[in-house]
Each structure stands twice: as structure tokens, then as C-alpha cells.
Amino acid sequence: MGANKLPLEGIRVLELAEGWAGPWSPTLLADLGAEVIKIEAIQRLDNTRGPAQPPPGTPSYPNKSPGPRPWNICLTFIVCSRNKLSATLDLSRPLGLTLFKELVRLSDVVCTNMVTGVPEKLGISYARLREVKPDIVMLASCGFGATGPYATHVSMGGSMDAAAGHLWLRNYPDADPTEVSHSTHLDSVNSVTGAFAVLTALFRLRKVGKGQFIDTSGCETFMPHVGEAIMDYTMNGQVHQPMGNAHSAMAPHGCYRCAGEDRWVAISVATEKEWRALCQAMGRPALAADPRFADRESRCRNRAELDRLVESWTREIDHYEAMRRLEEVGVPAGAVLDNSEVYRDPHFSTRGFFQPVEHPDMGTYPLPGVIWKMTRTPGSIRLRPPTLGEHNEYVFKGLLSLSDSRYAQLDREQYIGTVPLVRPL
Amino acid sequence: MAETALEGLRVLDLTQGIAGPFCTKLLADYGADVIKIERPGHGDVARRYGPFPGDDPNPEKSGLFLHLNTNKRGITLNLKTAAGRGSFKRLAERADLVVESFMPGTMARLGLSYATLEALNQRLVLVSISNFGQTGPYRDYKATDLVIQALASPMYSKGHPDREPLKYAENTALYFAGVTAAVAALGAAFASVFDGVGQHVDISIAEAVLGSVERMTTSYLYTGEVARRAGHQVLPTYLSGAYRCQDGFVGVQGGGRGESWWPRVYRMMGMPELAEDPRFSTLQAREQNREELDAFWHSWLLDHTREEVFRAAREARFPLAPVNTTEDLLNDPHYRARGFFVGLEHPVAGHLVYPGAPFKLSETPWQVSRPAPALGQHNEEVYGGLLGLGQRDLAGLRKEGVI
User: Which of A225, A197, A226 is nearest to A212 (CA)?
Assistant: First the structure.
């Protein structure tokens, strides 16, 4: 298949975002071929770049060694920054703001994840940007969105997890919320939904030449993901309670201990055929006829007993082996992989999910790659994560046509740079 | 009806369950013409899953199905018959996207491989959504949300250290894969609509989750350390997780900018002076005086209601929010003010309240122009309007069990 241009080639995206939820939307757009320019001030970097001088032994760096330019290789930044360009610009001074608006004039999309009200304070609200680029698309992503009583409230993945109803539901049935692990799932949902949102607005931009403002609340991006729980409440007044790994209509359905230290396999059985196959695989075909487990309802009713029986089988077997034996006979089962096993797993490696990336400050590591496989516009990690301000020349001399002397002046006056000025926290 | 963002994009939807239908729901809710194709007599498996109003298992009243299929037109078609495949191919000639979620290999067995479809419509995009993708050793593995989470999510490191790993709630992995597939599908639609390039898009539900949710995989490479379950871990650098207050729980993540959150915490508690107090002003001091700090924090929380704690957090600009149940979500004044939940009328299921727009477009808003289709509801409209079939043709197809 010939080399086609990537779907979003020719689209320019400016990223003024930090953390995970903000930058990950433009990452997916970059994977689709958009030119994404991440803009930070050397006075205030994306927090995922970590502190300017982290102590040795900090786990976010290769071999826990931060090296001379730790801001370029801090873990979350690295994972979020493939296929992007990096430019620096201090927007808090008038000249910086003017230059930013010049860039907006040459762009299609601006992605932000500041708290509602902050873009206004910085002079980069949608209304201001539209004055310089009438058909600009602006993604404003914030925990509670751009309107409503909590619009200006600060959010992080963990607090959105609570506010959107996820934290309550993702727990052991007998534990209270204070026992639950931290989760940033809401950041992931927010950002992938944000990428889809930008695509819808871009689609219309390409068709009719009009831009628009995208108001995204992280909590609202997630709520449709528990749609059936919401509908059960609006239909029946049923408030869903945490179920751990259990399922209201499937049993066995859980996570069972395997041989070895802290090894587990997840098994879920929906149909009679799967149930019989499981009994066979466990070497207990007679169990299939046991009245306690004769149908789905009985199995759900007697799930505790059933779980004990299943685990008495799994605990003698390796977790991968349990998965293989069950999948071979058509029972849905998955080894619970830790983050070292995921890298070695034959399936993900056969599909080339991880792609080795070489970086001057990091060395070479296989990083998670483009999520989808497309036959004609495949996408890949075509640009390694950029170093801070690596593309300043391209942006200011190339795109904005500034002279060498103006560029040098920007650098001298610390509008731009490649080394952080203050300790980012 | 206001203008929509994806007007003019036509999608044939062969998916069922959750991940595929959520992908096509997103396209439909923002304006694509999604034609949902179901098996005559049976329909989407989601029709058999609840919740049902009053627990009455009517396939036209499944809350899951109603939620996932808004704005789609519904037709029936038996792809196992030659006439059914013929009709499908004629529809495919007039479509931009086909989205399917069969087990890998099924489309080819039906005689509807990408190569076949491409020959009919060069710029057609076929999006295949499957558990593990169209290739690789687990290609034919069966999976549920739980199984996906085991292999591809941070499940191993979630939960209590002395208990089994704990999945995320309900079907969230499948929904997550659905949005990811929507990004890829619409991305590929750009190449199709604007560049005339059709192609086959392979979405692995496991990789969708692994790619965006499990970002800590890389931490193992960096440090050689496996991420393990820590339960509710409380670090002296920041607060995270849920805490009990007077009448419920609040959830917090005061991480990221680390040190700078603490003055906000003290301000929230009405004790701004603690920021200058040598016992609590630095990380080291807080570590040393951990018990004292905990006592302040917990007693303040227990003296206040969720509402009071949340209001104080908003004033102090600290990332804290109430731990909400679905009931709390429906009653929250914020989501009400934003009109997040929407009431829809359905001819069989009646008036019900649904989750609404995942994001708000200023010019081409999310809107529901039709509720989820009844099985085969739009047969005449689609076969008549798109393929020009008349009443007699349709009666024939019905008789042969094609529709």
C-alpha cells in the first residue's frame, strides 16, 4: 500500500495544557498526523516534567537517575509527548501574548485544560482568539466544564473520579470508599473524549469553514460510561453499589489466586456452554450437573461457594497457564498482568504495540505506541518526545518569520529558552 | 434541529454489546447518519441485558440498549443469506464507514472482507473492533470487561495489598475502548472524505485500554520495579483517595504541584496559619508530625458535611469533590444547571432520563433527534430511501427471512 498522507496532515494544533488529561488529547491528534506544538513558559512548565532538580533516586527517571535535564525525560511527560513539537513562550507579558496570537492565526486548534476563568485572565479566551482567527477551534477542558456552579473549581483525576461517580462504584463490596486505591482513570477518559471532540469540530471546519468552542467537563465525559447504572436509577430508583470483580448476571466472575506469589487469573462465565467448558477444564465435569450451579441464577446466588471451588483449581496453576487452558476451550479468562509482564506479553509484542524510541537525554526505551492500526495511514512514533524548546527556531523564525536578531532578543529577554527558569514543582 | 458537526457522514453499524455501539453512538449523537444493522428476530445482545424498567425484560426497554443507540436508524438484515449480503453491499457502496465488532475472521467468512468491500467502494473505511485485535496470539480469545482489565489495565496494582486485584467499575473498559475507536474511526473518516483514501482500521479493546489507561507500564522500564497494590496510600507529600466526613465521603487528589497544595488545604480547613507553622510548613516537618496533622485533618472533616467540605474546597481552590453515587449525580445542582441529564420519549419504554452530552460544541450541539430504534424500525425508510426498494421487494425479503 502506497504512502498516504496521515488523516490530519496540514492541521496545526497549539497545546497549552498540562498533566495527563490536557496533553493526551493532542497526543492522539498528533498520532493522526496533526502538527502539535506544545507551548510552555520557561517560567512555568507542565507539571509532568517534574522538579528542575529532583534528588537522585526519584522513580520517574531512567534508572532513577534524573540526569542534567530531568525536565526532558520525566515519565508522564515522555509518555504524553510523542509526535509533538516543543516551543517556549512567556504569555504573561504583552509581547508573548502578541506572538501567541500570531501563532493562533496560523493554527486550526487550540487545546487548553486550565481551570475555567484562567484563559480569560491570560487574554486567550475563545472570544479573544476568535478575533485573530475567526474559524479557530478551541478545546477548553476542565473538571466541571465552562458553565454551572462549580465551573471555576480546580480538579484533578482523583477528585473527578469521586465527583463523577466512579470512585463509589469501583470498590470491594464490603469496603468503604476510604479503602480504595487512587485512580486517574477520569484523566484518561477526559482526554480521549477531548480528542474525539476536536475531531468533530475539525470535521465541520473542513466541510463548512467554521470553528467553534468545545466546553468539556471531565466528569461529564465519564458519566455516559456508567450509563446503565444511571439508567437503573432513573428507571427503577436502583442505586448501584460496588461489586468488586463480581457481575450481577455472570458467575463465576472474578479474580482467582494462582500458583506463585501474588499471581491471579480473571475468569468470567456468561453462558451454559462456557460453564460446562470450565467444569471440564477444572477436571470436574460432574459439577455442571450440580443443582447449586445448574443455571445462571443459581450460580449467581451461590457465587461465594462457586468462587471457592474455582480458586481451589486455579491456585495450583500458573496464571498464564490457567488463561491458556480456559481460552482454548472457549472460556473468557485473562492473566492479571503486572506492569513488567505487559512488556513481555507475547500478544502485545507480536502486534508491535511497544515501539523503541531513542532520545538524547533518556536513552532508548520501548514506549507504548499508536493505539490503532490503520492499513493506509498507519501512524507511528515518527517524532520522539521533544526536548524543551527544541522547536523554537522552527516556530519563531520559521512560522512567524522573526529575524535572527529578534529571535536572539526573545531569548535574551527570557520570552523563550530551553532551560527552565524557576523550579517547576 | 440545529446544524450538526458530522452531517453527511454515513455509517453502517454492525456492532453489538457495548464498545462498538458506544463508538457509533458518539458518531450518531454528533450528527452522523448511523444505520444500525441487527439480526432479524434477535437484534443486539444488549437488548437482553438490563436494566429494564420494573425488571420487565422487554427487548425494546433495555436501559443499556436505549442508552447506547440514540440517534441511530435501525434495520434488520440477515448477513448469512445471499440476498442479505447483496443488500449490505449495496448499502456499503453508499457509506463512508462500516463499523463491526464480530470475532476476528467473521466478516471474511460472511464474504464481506475488507478486500471485497474495497472493491465496491474505494474510499470505504472498515473499522473492526475486537477484544485483542485482528492479529496476534490472543486474536481468538474471548473476553469480558473483567478479562480485558486483567490483561491491559492497571488492575494488578489496584486494590488492597492483602486482597485480590480490583477492576474499575461496571463496563468502563468497554466504554473506554468505544471512545478510542470513535477517535480512530473519525480520524480515518478524514482520510476517506477529504483525501479519498479508504482502509481497514483494527481496534483492539485491550490495546485501547493499555495505550491510554495503563501509563505506568513505562515506569517498570525506567525503574525495574513492579507497581503493586497499595490500597489507600497516604503520602506526606499530598492527599489522595477518599476520606470520611460527617455525612459521607469526599475524594481528593492534591498531587502534581505537591508542596503548593498544602497552604490551600490549611486555608480550606480555616487554619491558614498552619502554612507558617514549623510543624507543618515543609514536607519533612509534615512527615515528622504526621499524627498531629492527621488529627487536624480528620477532625475537621468529621465536623463538616460533604456540602460544607466541598464548598470550603472550592473557596480554597483545592481539588476535592464529594464521592457521588448515581443518585447524587442526578440530584447535583451543577449537572442540572448544565443540563447534562436529558429526558427522552421512547414509543415503548416511555419517558426516561438518560446521560447526555460528553462535551458541548458551541455551534453544533449534541442533540437527540430520535431515541434508540425498535428492531427493524427503519427498514422501509432505509431500504426504500437508499436502495429504492418498494413494498413488494420488502415483503419478499421479509418472507425469505432476510429482514
Answer: A197
